[in-house]
């Protein structure tokens, strides 16, 4: 090192290269070699990085596609369970079964990934308490949906519930500090409009006899019903944004975080189910379609936690909006629902919204 410094000094003072010791020539050779190594590393790692990105895009596409299919099949499956127009099972027991299945799968995943060491010591209350909030919010909304039916018709609820897209976007920006571009705001507006269009297009059943039978049913919503649906949309957005903040804010394995979430989910929904008076027993009226609903919603809840952990709550909105289209297609194929040309309007709006938001 001293020889090299002295060589640099001679070069600086005399303006000549020092060639007596050969130190400068060696350093120049080493520098050239290092440059070659860096260039070679960049060249060899670039295809590998591209391959990993391609694999990641494929994985996300499969995950989101599966979620859209499960979301879209939920309503047709519920229709298939009905007997004489009535749901034969206890809906609250179905929610408990879904939460219990998610809890057991999370526990199994924790065992398979070797994360059981976190269960040996009891977690602190400060660590676990935040996971109770989403369970309380979702349980509140589940009961609110039932209460709202007395103040509006189901079609009006379907239309006005699309306001949760706006509430989620506002809370996403305010609570998580994520500023949305103008094009992204326009995309979310299109997404909400697509939901409203799809809700209205589904009112045309193409069955005059059925329309005559349902002549007494009219679109209606009271002031109290409008207030309740606004509360529902705000709570829905708050639950999604809060869950995303908790999952991303703690450096814990996702399976362990899911375990905390679903412990509270089972406890709160279990208390709600057993405290409510119902003529049906806990598993009364269960059929293959009910078990398919439980399996689908279990998978959807676990996949949604992946989206909130590694993606964003806005992606959840696009999944729900796209699922409306799947719902309409499955209803046409399975239940004989007549699709109108107006159906192409929400399809185009959702496609344009996805382009504007993710471009």
Distance between the termini: 53 Å
Shape: globular
Question: Share of helix among residues?
Answer: over 70%
Round the Cα radius of gyration to an integer and report it: 29 Å
Low-pLDDT stretches: 1-27, 29-44, 204-217
- Main sheet attributes: strand count, strand direction, barrel closure: none
Mean pLDDT: 77
- What fraction of the residues are assigned to beta strands by DSSP? under 5%
List the helices and strands in order. Answer: HHHHHHHHHHHHHHH
Query: How many separate domains make up the residues?
Result: 1
Structural class: mainly alpha
Topology, number of strands: 0
Number of H/I helices: 15
Describe this structure in words.
The chain is mostly helical and 359 residues long. The protein has helices at residues 2-14, 23-81, 91-112, 117-120, 125-128, 132-148, 154-160, 164-176, 182-201, 208-213, 223-249, 254-275, 288-310, 313-335, 344-358. It is built from 15 helices and no strands. It is globular. The two termini are 53 Å apart. The relative contact order is 0.16. The model is unreliable at 1-27, 29-44 and 204-217 (pLDDT under 50). The chain crosses the membrane at residues 58-80, 100-121, 128-151, 157-175, 182-201, 221-242, 254-274, 286-308, 317-335, 341-358. Pfam families: Nuc_sug_transp. It is found in: Golgi apparatus membrane.
């Amino acid at each position: 090192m001293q020889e090299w410094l002295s060589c640099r000094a001679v070069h600086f003072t005399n303006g000549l290269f020092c060639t007596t010791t050969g130190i400068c020539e060696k350093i120049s050779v080493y520098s050239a070699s290092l440059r070659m190594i860096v260039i070679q590393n960049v060249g060899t790692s670039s295809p590998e990085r591209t391959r990993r990105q391609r694999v990641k895009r494929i994985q996300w596409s499969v995950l989101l596609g599966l979620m859209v299919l499960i979301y879209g099949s939920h309503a047709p499956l519920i229709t298939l369970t009905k007997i004489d127009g009535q749901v034969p099972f206890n809906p609250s027991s179905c929610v408990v079964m879904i939460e219990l299945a998610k809890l057991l799968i999370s526990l199994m995943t924790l065992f398979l990934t070797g994360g059981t060491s976190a269960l040996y010591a009891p977690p602190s209350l400060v660590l676990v308490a935040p996971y109770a909030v989403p369970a309380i919010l979702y349980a509140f909304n589940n009961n609110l949906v039932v209460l709202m039916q007395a103040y509006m018709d189901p079609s009006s609820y379907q239309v006005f519930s699309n306001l949760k897209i706006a509430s989620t976007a506002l809370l996403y920006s305010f609570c998580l500090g994520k500023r949305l571009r103008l094009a992204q705001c326009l995309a979310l507006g299109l997404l909400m409009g697509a939901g409203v269009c799809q809700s209205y297009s589904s009112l045309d059943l193409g069955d005059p006899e059925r329309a005559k039978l349902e002549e007494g049913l009219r679109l209606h919503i009271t002031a109290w019903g409008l207030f309740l649906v606004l509360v529902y949309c705000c709570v829905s957005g708050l639950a999604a944004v809060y869950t995303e903040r908790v999952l991303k804010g703690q450096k814990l394995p996702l399976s362990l975080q899911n375990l905390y979430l679903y412990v509270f989910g089972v406890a709160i929904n279990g208390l709600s189910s057993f405290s409510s008076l119902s003529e049906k027993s806990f598993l009364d009226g269960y059929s293959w379609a009910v078990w398919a609903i439980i399996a689908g919603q279990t998978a959807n809840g676990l996949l949604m936690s992946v989206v909130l952990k590694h993606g964003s709550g806005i992606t959840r909105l696009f999944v729900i909006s796209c699922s409306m289209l799947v719902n309409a297609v499955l209803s046409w194929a399975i239940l004989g629902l007549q699709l109108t040309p107006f159906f192409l309007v929400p399809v185009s709006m959702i496609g344009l919204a996805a382009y504007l938001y993710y471009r």
